[in-house]
Amino acid sequence: MIKFKLLFLSLLLALVGCKGETNINDNSIDNLPKETYVLVHSAWLGKWQWENIVPILTNKGHKVIAPDLPGDGSDGTPASDITMDDYVNTLVSILDEQDKPVILVGHSFNGITISRVAELRPNKVKSLVYMAAFLLPNESSFLGAVQGVSGSNAVDNFKVSDDGYSAYINENQQKNALVHDVSQEFYDVNIKPYIVSEPLSPLKYKLQITDKNFGRIPKYYIETTEDKAIPIEIQKRMYNGNVLKVYTLNSSHCPNFSQPKKLAEVLLDVVNEQEKKDLIMSHFEKEEEVKVHRLFSNENQIFAHFESKRGGEKYAHMALLEITGDKKIYTTIQKVPENQISENRMFEGVRLVSTNSNHTVSNLTHINNFIKNVWIDGKYETLPDFFNNGKLMQHNPTVQDDVQGLYDLLDYLNSQGITLKYVEIVTSFAKGNMVLVYSKGTFGGDNYLFADLFRLENQKIVEHWDVIEQK
Fold first, then answer.
1. Is the distance from CB of 101 to CB of 167 less than 8 angstroms?
2. Stated pTM of the model
3. How far apart are CA 1 and CA 341, in angstroms?
4. pLDDT number for residue 356
5. Which of 154, 242, 338, 465 could lock onto 177 through a cystine, CB 3.0 to 4.6 A?
């Protein structure tokens, strides 16, 4: 209880004035800017793998750069002379020549390479796109990541050359591992003649990245559900909690060959997603070291959950931008306490929307009823009705998990004579399993704006984040 009191009081002292609602200028997300894509091929392949993608992107007015990395494609550098630094320097040189940040796309192994490049040139990378790619944490390597992986034809048939400088997939398994969903004729003519051995040294490289540089760049993942090189379970394990959006292609490891139009559509949509982020974040240009953790949108709204730093201290933000109608933005900001009562930190947890449109409306209704019954009308005895067996993953820094944590909060507030009451719902956002509600109310006698984000399963609340701010 002492820990709870100290955390609660520190949170209360940290809350600052609320900006509330602000009118914005009309700005359509349909007028998308022209971007520069840098497409980085897979191991064993080369820039030629993008030949069906490049024309689609350039026909939309975008600039596309697709290099051969050293030792791959038509580059004849001996494998014995190649390290990860050579891969990275090739891409860094390209980025340094551009006059604006690029969309950096990495396929398969070279997800590791683009991560390192982003670490070195964070201001040159607008977003990172991982196509069935290795999205690994700091100090990880390709060879380390594939240890113990089962169900991968690429891993099962991975061989090292006699001289120890390069690696390859057994020739009779290359098609099955990489592109089982194209015809044998297409493979024999357009793919097989161009596959090369991969320099081994980069595969051993241990990734060096930081949250300050690499961590703040928006990331997107393209999962390939029929992949026989990186099984879908491994892909999910890598991207869960690390990306803003996941695109799904029911393809082999190389949709650039089997589904080029669908892949190009995904890459084009990343521009749309990036523009949404830029639109809402344009209202926070003075914030430092911004890192967006969640970005959701529907036809009328864009929502962002992000962190920033002010004077060396970390702050949590929630913002909801109306892109139709009255063009308002709702914002809340709250200082992040150093110590939190729960292990579920303010930004952790599920980051992706499960877009089951059949439940969007019912989920919103469930949350509206929850806010009204519990926090507006004070019917605390109904709390368990909104959860499954009293379970809740709680990200409020002063409240324990589960429904019991909410009851403990209410008991503590009552013992201290502190009132917490919501007065009215101001606005809301819903998409799939995520619902956000902004509410006006009072806390300790002062007026507050409450931003509550909920994740639901089977129309029951399972996870909660919030950012509250004094008006």
1. no
2. 0.89
3. 10
4. 65
5. 154
